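Thread amino acids onto this structure.
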């Protein structure tokens, strides 16, 4: 979880203009919400990853093996990725 007070200190929040502080507070609230929400990516037996937000992705063997290997956030909806490999789905 984002530590807003730590970020305020790091960015010199108290020394900034009020308009900057408003923008910062708004950005932090959006970031906290995005961090708490998840986009579940489920792998099919064909190696295709279907996202909860309606996209399908395929990773080549030279790159990532799971969506979270290539980045923490969904490139479509911006939510944090929770990946469910096919092996895990088989046993549900």
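Threaded sequence (92 positions):
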């Amino acid at each position: 979880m984002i530590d807003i007070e730590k970020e305020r200190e790091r960015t010199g929040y108290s020394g900034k203009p009020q308009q900057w502080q408003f923008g910062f507070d708004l950005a932090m609230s959006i970031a906290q919400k995005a961090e708490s929400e998840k986009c579940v990516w489920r792998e099919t037996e064909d190696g295709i990853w279907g996202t909860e937000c309606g996209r399908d992705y395929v990773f080549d063997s030279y790159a990532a093996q799971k969506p979270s290997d290539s980045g923490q956030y969904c490139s479509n909806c911006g939510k944090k990725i929770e990946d469910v490999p096919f092996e895990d789905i088989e046993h549900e």
